[in-house]
Amino acid sequence: MPRKYKGVFIVLEGPDKSGKSTQAQTLGKYFHSLGREVVWTREPGGTPFAEAIRALLLNPLHTVSPIAELLLYEASRAQHVQEKILPALKAGKIVLCERFTMSSLAYQGYGRGFSISVIEKLNRIATQGLEPDLTVIFDIPEKYFVERCRKKAADRLELEPAQFRERVRRGYRELGKKHSGAVLLVDGKKPLSAVQSRIRREIDRLLRKDCL
Ligand code: TMP
Predict the structure, then answer these.
(1) Which of 83, 117, 164, 195 has the fewest C-beta atoms under 10 angstroms from its C-beta?
(2) CB-ligand 1 contact for 107 (6 Å cutoff)
(3) 93 C-alpha vs ligand 1 centroid, how far in Å?
(4) Position 211 pLDDT exceeds 60
């Protein structure tokens, strides 16, 4: 789809505890240092209504049917894109989003077994066809997940068995290879500074290419 906005849309993806939030914070500071206006956001969530859906989805006390889960992620996305992401991009801002459409493909597609083409259709409807300018995927092995989980109570998705997480991880690797847009697959085990320089090189290239 031709770009209908002046901003830049960057998405950080990956399995749970892959370090997205830490990288996002550091990247946000980098953009500020370049004098760019940045909007940090996340999925599920990002607006008051979508954050209410997030609370429902991640609450470990709820039992959620797989189809209800998929549709709630898409509902949260539809609200988020319409209310927050598109207006920010139209205003020329950099939108830094933790998780987007690829999460539904990895978790509900590879993880739960829903048809990828059905999820792609739902994604297109929820996003109005919006796609990231760059998707960064953080890849980490299971042992990092286990170590990092000790520090914070697990949410509903984090309580899924290791086999589920393994399918999600495989999903990300495959999605990264076949994705049509710009994708950067990074090794989340590397030190923060090494990962940051790798991402920044790619982003600098993107900003130069588009003269944004
Ligand atoms: P997080 O934002 O703290 O990573 O938690 C969000 C959880 O929701 C995470 O386990 C991934 C999961 N998720 C999906 O299953 N499908 C989706 O479409 C999205 C956006 C997230």
Answers:
(1) 117
(2) yes
(3) 24
(4) no
Mean pLDDT of the chain: 92
Mean pLDDT of 115-134: 97
pTM for the whole structure: 0.95
Q: What fold does the segment set 8-209 form as a domain? A: Rossmann fold (3.40.50)
Nearest ligand 1 atom to the CA of 99 is 20
Centre of ligand 1 to C-alpha 122, Å, is 16
Q: Which two tokens stand for residue 210?
A: 């588009």
Q: Which residue has the tokens 């030190």?
A: 191
Q: Whose CA is nearest to atom 2 of ligand 1?
A: 43
Taking 80 as the threshold, does the pLDDT of residue 80 lie above it? yes
- Give the count of beta carbons closer than 10 Å to the beta carbon of residue 127: 21
Spatial distance between the Cα atoms of 69 and 151, rounded to a whole number of angstroms: 26
